[in-house]
Amino acid sequence: MPPPPPDVTPSPQSARGGALYANSSEGAKAVREDYLYWSGRLTDTSFQLSLAVIAANWAVFGSVQKLLGNAWAQTSLILVILSFALSVVGAKWMSELHRKQVDYAEQDLQRWDKECEASRGQRDPWPFTWKIEHLGRCMRELKMWLTLGAGAAFVAALLVS
To answer: Is residue 11 a part of any domain in this protein?
Structure first.
């Protein structure tokens, strides 16, 4: 393995024999940060692809009449619109679930601290809820599959026209 470049100083992790993370908490934080990054990328990418499908449909078919005359083009647009609508509804629902968690925490901080301690080492979504986790998972799946479905329908529209 080549030595590090001269401008890189040794990290505090070197005390653990060159480990990337000094402790498990740092490792968990890194995984969480990457999870948030990639789920955010999914949102960004699905939105961009949805706009691209709309633009591509318009570029290929050029008019509302031609677009409406192709069932695959219609399907691709319906899937995009459905994806947008579900994203808005999901964001509203998710924001309300998070607001309820904030209110719950503020009602009894000692209970909140006890729940934090009880969740350590458990498969527990704390400080979130199972409903928040499940809705997040469902929203990610829907964003992915609806967007990919819209793109596939557009490709089918190209092949049929």
So the answer is: no
